[in-house]
Design goal:
Helix content is about 60%, strand content about 5%. A 4-stranded mixed β-sheet has the order 1-2-4-3, sandwiched between helices. It is globular.
Length: about 500
């Protein structure tokens, strides 16, 4: 093993350990939390469970994220089938991969110590941010692809070997294809990556190579798309894949606004989410100041890439008109440029060896203190002391687990984690309601009502809050075919909810 390879292995192991330490406290998927009741994570887990057990996404179970995300959650299910602890392991690996490429990029401008500091600061800042939500989001698992692609673009600009440039372009295209299979509106970032790579090669009078590069990128991008398309075709679900993933997201998750309103909402949503965490806000500002006003990055193509990639990412993510906390998570990769700028200044100021040694000690102490401070600021920390018996999911599981028939319907709500807690594989396609109005996609609630009318499941879970208190009493088929056998009240995301378990009569 060469020294460089040995260092890479040691670096990755170190990043695994550092990622583990922050994520242990910051994600509710870790062993320190009794349960992660975040609806998105549980929905992905149910889909992954379905894949492992032979069900086909979109055809047998309906959800609207990309199939690669379900495959990741399928691996997590294989590691732990009644909890999201397996997802925690994958989160640690994902963050370590992200920081591996952040290190490689930072090391182009900083020494190894300061490049490590960039990684050590990036991890707690991102993991404790509001956009991180409860852990395990689609955006979180996309971070490695963003980190690699920023690194690969800089490498492309500074590499003369066309063979190596084609390799970078192919691998970045592969990244683009994989992200398309998770959340396709993020692909705007890679559109600008390839567009600028094309014009960069043209500027070098490599006209033939520029067009070949486009083909190489598209081959890399369409390779994972082809693999999943074949999978869906074999299972007779290609139409379901296109309609449920692409068409549903384009039609049902966009708001009806004028162009002017849409642009205003887009910019306001991005600005609002940037302001959720002040450390991210100011590091982003510092990063773009360094890009525009200093000599650190020098290359005009890279400067263009940073500005345009951010702008196109804003367009891809927020132009639809909706905004959730976790949407901004992938934008946080841009704080790396602020961290590099600050640490580069320290490198330039600290020339004396004795001062450098003191700086190393002080910086390590600062990293440790900031990690503790950020972890303590995580919005998830308050849920750590909560025991299993607090959650309706486990209260109901004590009843469901005693039955030979464990069929369940999560009625008129997003996946609350009841399938996860009871290790239930749904026997119905529309096992939960998506976060869309009935008028836009009526088949979900129509199907759920049919399941209750035909007594297709033994148990039904209903959730009520101040906005719909008592509405279960007006559900004629539910009250005719099922009886309420358990009620449990608890707080979910700061609101009082009542959960009801119904059993088939």
């Amino acid at each position: 093993m060469t020294n460089e390879r040995k260092f890479s292995v040691q670096l990755f192991v170190l990043l695994i350990l550092v990622s583990f330490c922050s994520l242990l406290f910051c994600t509710k998927n870790s062993w320190l939390y009794s349960f992660n009741d975040w609806v998105d994570g549980n929905a992905f887990f149910t889909m992954g469970k379905g894949m492992v057990n032979g069900l086909v996404p979109y055809k047998d179970l309906f959800e609207q994220k990309g199939p690669l995300l379900y495959l990741i959650y399928a691996v997590g299910y294989l590691l732990s089938n009644k909890t999201l602890h397996g997802i925690f392991v994958l989160e640690v690996i994902s963050m370590a991969i992200t920081c591996y490429y952040i290190f490689k990029f930072s090391n182009k401008f900083l020494n190894r110590f300061n490049s490590l500091v960039v990684c050590f600061l990036f991890i707690p800042v991102v993991c404790s941010s509001k956009s991180f939500v409860q852990g395990g989001s689609c955006e979180e698992f996309c971070l490695p692809f963003f980190a690699y692609s920023i690194y690969s673009f800089y490498e492309l600009l500074n590499e003369n070997s066309m063979q190596y440039q084609y390799k970078l372009i192919f691998l970045t295209g592969l990244n683009a294809g994989l992200v398309t299979l998770m959340k396709f509106n993020l692909i705007a970032f890679w559109f600008i990556w390839m567009a600028l790579a094309f014009f960069f090669l043209l500027s070098k009078k490599k006209i033939k190579e520029a067009f070949i590069a486009c083909v190489v990128f598209l081959v890399g991008m369409f390779l994972p798309l082809a693999v999943f398309s074949i999978y869906f075709m074999i299972h007779g679900a290609f139409k379901d894949f296109i309609e449920s993933y692409f068409m549903f997201n384009m039609n049902s998750y966009t708001t009806i606004l004028s162009l002017r309103e849409r642009i205003h909402n887009m910019l306001w949503a991005c600005y609002s989410e940037l302001n959720y965490n002040y450390d991210i806000k100011y590091l982003t500002y510092i990063g773009f100041t360094c890009i525009l006003c200093t000599w650190i990055y020098r290359n005009v193509w890279f400067i263009l890439f940073m500005i345009l990639s951010y702008a196109f990412l804003v367009l891809g993510v927020f132009f639809g008109g909706n905004a959730f906390f976790y949407y901004y998570l992938d934008f946080q990769i841009y704080i790396v440029f602020g961290l590099i700028g600050i640490l580069k200044l320290f490198e330039l100021l600290l020339k004396n060896n004795k001062i450098k040694k003191l700086y190393y000690r002080v910086m390590l102490c600062f990293v440790a203190l900031l990690t503790v401070q950020n972890v303590h600021a995580s919005t998830n920390l308050e849920y750590m002391p909560i025991k299993k018996d607090y959650y309706a999911q486990y209260v109901f599981d004590q009843i469901i687990s005693k039955s030979d028939d464990k069929t369940l319907l999560n009625y008129d709500n997003l996946d609350g984690g009841f399938y996860t807690a009871s290790d239930i594989l749904p026997n119905v396609k529309y096992f939960m309601r998506q976060n869309v109005d009935y008028e836009r996609y009526p088949i979900i609630m129509d199907s759920q009502n049919d399941y209750i009318k035909s007594k297709k499941v033994k148990y039904v879970v209903i959730r009520e809050y101040f906005g719909n208190r008592g509405y279960r009493k007006d559900l004629e088929d539910l009250n005719k075919n099922y009886k309420c056998i358990k009620h449990h009240a608890q707080i979910f995301e700061g609101m009082d909810y009542d959960y009801y378990l119904y059993e088939r009569r």
